[in-house]
Amino acid sequence: MMNPDALETFFDVVSERIKACGNEVRRVFHGRGRCYEGLEQITADWLGQGVLQIAIFKEADPSFYQVLRDGIEKFCQSDIWKNAGGTTVVLQHRDREGAETETLVGEQPQQINVIENGLTYKLDLGKRQNNGLFLDMRLGREWVQNNAKHKRVLNLFAYTCGFSVAAVEGKADQVVNLDMAKSSLSRGRENHQLNQHNLNQVAFLGHELFKSWGKVKKYGPYDLVIIDPPSFQKGSFVLTKDYAKILRRLPDLVEKGGDVLACVNAPDIQPSFLMEQMAECAPEFEFVSRLDNPPEFEDIDTDSALKVMHFKRQG
Q1: Tens of pLDDT along 102-154?
Q2: CATH of region 4-124, choose from 2.60.40.1220, 1.10.8.60, 3.30.750.80, 3.55.40.20
Q3: DSSP string, 239-256
């Protein structure tokens, strides 16, 4: 149960973290990690350019919303808010149909260009549940940028091509993005253009993965494969059933000595799932390490949080 008395802690944490953000996009409160009692269903993201986006994932008592609104009004008169250049607060109700979004302070932009690690991404506000960039993957994108030089990269379930942008910025020779949502790939193309990238280095394949192995293989072999699937996508992907189908294809896709980043963001799936699946389906790929998650995504149980696992092909 969300506790209005706990919102004092919410504003204390947001105040402290927003000071360190500058104009970079960051999660500034992560109640979903269950580290803040009474605030388990609320998050807050600083998007830069003066915009704070708060999300509530489960309907709370009316008193909670009233205390939240009063707290926002007070916060927006603080020096911290003014020094950060704050202008807008939006509240997204993730528990309501269409992820209804309301503007509490200022005017909500329909789109906003955000900056992460010096790179620019375009986000949508108020249109859909996910705005175009998963902030908990910040260190994953940073790892790709630091490890992509002169590599051929395959980005599966590419969404809006965040990994691709990081890879090209890290001087990858070629990146192939595959996602069945062509609209997401179109946004990925925009993201590359926002960063003045050469699109001749980037391919966008708007296909369903399991019907497109021939197209994917044609661009290979690859030095780095990134697998970041949804936990469940109706009619196309069920993580516990279909992940193995991808892993079995890796020997045909990855060069010897090549790398794989295998990701899972389902709280009920343990890191051992990926270790065991890889050992069974592609035993020539050896586990190297699990990447850290951003510290702002603190979680009472690290095994429930995002899992980004690095494997390397031996031989």
Answers
A1: 999 999 899 999 999 999 999 998 767 788 999 999 999 999 999 999 999 99
A2: 3.30.750.80
A3: HHHHHHHHHTTHHHHEEE
